[in-house]
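User: I'm putting together a teaching handout on how sequence relates to shape, and I'd like one worked example. Could you take S41 family peptidase from Archangium lansingense, show the sequence you're using, and then write out its predicted structure as tokens right after it?

Assistant: Happy to. First the sequence, then the structure tokens directly below it.
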Amino acid sequence: MGSTSEVLFSQRIPLEDVRRLPIFESREEKILLASQMEVLLDKFYVHLPLKENMLGVRPVQQARLLQANVELYPDDYSFMAALLQLSTGLRDFHTMVDLPEPWSRFTAFLPFQLHEYFDGAGAPHYLVGEVSPGADLGGDFVSGVEVTHWNGEPMAHKVKRLGRMTAGSNHQARCRRALESLTQRILKYGLPPDEDFVFLSYLGKRGPTDIKLPWLVREAPLPGQSAASSATTTGLNEHSIQLQRLRKELFCPDRVLQEQKISELREQNSPSATWSLLERTLQTDSLYPESLSFRVVETPSGTFGYLHIANFMVSDVDGFVREVERIVRMLPQTGLIIDVRGNPGGAIPAGERILQFFTSARIEPEPVSLRCTDFTRKLSESGEGWAPWRPSLRLGVVTGELFSQGFPLTPVEQANSTGQIYKGPVVLVCDALSYSATDFFIAGFKDHNIGKLIGVDSQTGAGGASMYWHQKLVSDWHDVPGSPLKPLARGAAMRVALLRSTRVGVKRGLPVEGLGAEIDIRYRYTRDDVLHGNVDLMNRAGQVLVSGA
């Protein structure tokens, strides 16, 4: 059997064939999707008042109009475009539609990655970074060349225009996600590309030149969060989780195999005393390589530890927290750079519980609350896990309060069970793709004054919620007479932001959604960052660790 990247390229499917695939068997299946989106938004969506005010949208009415006017969308493609436009208009990756089969089985990609950097005058440039080892692009279209135009459109204009159609909570998040979507798209979450080929203008060795590249499509979805795994402590952008996996398969196929081996060892050994033996064999790697990596960095300001948290997608939160503790104790105590750029979230307690390692202050996890409706009140009565919110939801329906009382998803005793283990200075590096559970982590880092926040964007992803799956709501309400919640057809799925988070400390009560955490030090990527492993960014972080500015 070939490598992961060879398999990707051997499974190519014509894009035009994907576009012609039928999705719905009847008009009723379309109406079902739109009606269930209406139920989620009207009865459960915690950010509905905020989005209506911040964005000037009326999503519940849009869902009703989509049902009433379904005949205006006679083909499957146009209907799905309208439904996706409704959900992306919320600027909220917690509240989205997963497309039904067969589209949900496909991934479209180009075999290279684009990176943005800024010159001395502040103008953006776009370089080819990683190129898949399985790709044969020919000519001098290689890592390091600068792409100037995309289908004849200047790159900076293309990214901004595409950004206006994405779901990021702020302008910079939308532009970052637009840049991602130029080369990789998971069709479970969006429509296929409009074009079969892309024409790129770039600066080659002999000057400006062009290349024509076809979109590649493969069948079989990437592993992701199951709709059945719907704990209220989950906060993530699932699309980005799957993009992380795709990029590893495209650009680091050997890493995928290594991660699989370590994960198998971890699962075999974690319940037994051999866990400590396994730890001792991993002095340069992590027990959770899909989520954690670390190293020592040398900068002009000194030698520091570096911890990259790619995601918080872990089922064993205790094991993850213990692994972070092990790594932090191994790294130099002269200063630590924590990097959560591109981290789409995962288990909220995984992030909040590691904050204690870096401060002597008592950690106060972020409280979360539900919107007060008859339906959230009934949901709170479906299990003891909802008991803290139940009294205020009952009162809220009577008094007209918008939200219930807030309670943390991370138990306070767990957030403080170990205490500070790292005594050196700490900086946190983030970007506009740092989202959801990562927003909880970043806000906690700021609210407890742990260190400076270095942002390659002026805002974080601003995803301030814990999400819940439609399928889980259907299950919770299966014995409620007259329930408006119905199972979806053909493998479609939906999720909704159910609990909103608010800040603690001096920012107490302010929402995270749409705002994120404020950046202390703004940084823009350089050409050397793109070509040489973020060398200038690490040097800047080292300066901050030493001088605090």
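A couple of points you could highlight for students: Residues 224-230 have pLDDT under 50 and may be disordered. Residues 1-225 form a domain with the Pdz3 Domain fold (CATH 2.30.42.10).
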